[in-house]
Amino acid sequence: MKRRSFLKGTLATGAAAVAVNAGLLTPSTVLAADWNKGAFSAKTTDDALSAVYGSSAATASGDIKLKAPAIAENGAVTPVEVDASGIDGVESISILASKNPMPMVCEYAFAAGAVGFVSTRIKMGETMNVIAIVNAGGKLLKAEQEVKVTIGGCGG
Amino acid sequence: MAIKIRMRGKSKGGVAEIKALIKHPMESGARMNKATGKPYPAKYIDMVTVSVNGTPAVNAQWSGAVSANPYMAVKVKANAGDEVTVSMTDNTGDKGEEVIKLK
Question: In CATH, what number is assigned to the domain containing residue B93?
Fold first, then answer.
């Protein structure tokens, strides 16, 4: 009996995971209510983007102003600013750190009453690229910048 | 325990920049406690909402990779006198909320 219920359990969670991967359970980008566990536990930037937007194909855009330091003395507090106010219909902005164990750092979803602008501070374990993804009208736009980290942000 | 938030906002030409400084350890759950050899338990803010006069404008999802004592700035369409609320919860269920009236 125990084995049976165990199998049932794994099958059920397996199915849920597949549904998430297929984008069936991905909460809508318009002010999602649930924390996107799939995206934040993804190990690569592509997987994280697929979990959020259902696609990892983003085009580089000069309209995104990504402000990050060229050299961060302390990777635990790297200031990052993403200004996409020059783009119409910004629905969300995500910030990723390419070489972090889990690259997805944060995602901001905007309703009509907001402007596509985010400024925050993130942790970076080593020298890597900061990636800003802007979702405007279903199109994914990207800006990337390398940040050299002299002291890591993960307990070092 | 309530999360402490310090917040400021000023409207200029219909757009207000809301700046918030939050007191929180933002422990990702990956950092090792060298004395015990076990990781510090995860404790980070995962959901943040910014509302203008009660209508949600920005919904943010954070991970443990947002720096400790986070700083956040967003821009919302709001005028002087509007009420802006920033509310958040962390992964252990702690909540914080702060309301300001725009100048």
Answer: 2.60.40.10
Determine whether A106 is exposed, middle or buried from the number of CB atoms within 10 Å of its CB (0-12, 13-18, 19+): buried
Interface with B, mutate which of A36, A108, A130 (most B CBs under 10 A): A108
Whole-angstrom distance, CA of residue A107 vs CA of residue A85: 16
Q: What is the pTM of this model?
A: 0.81
Domain of residue B86 covers 4-101
Cα–Cα dist A102/A59, whole Å:
22
Task: Decide: B82 and B22 in contact? Cβ < 8 Å.
Answer: no
Whether B91 contacts B101, CB under 8 Å: no
Phi and psi for A123 in degrees, rounded to 5? -95, 135
Q: How many domains does chain B have?
A: 1
ipTM of the complex: 0.91
Q: What is the pLDDT of residues B50-76, one digit of tens each?
A: 999 999 999 999 999 999 999 999 999
**Do A68 and A78 meet the contact criterion of CB atoms below 8 Å apart?**
yes
Q: Which positions in chain B touch A100 (Cβ < 8 Å)?
A: 65
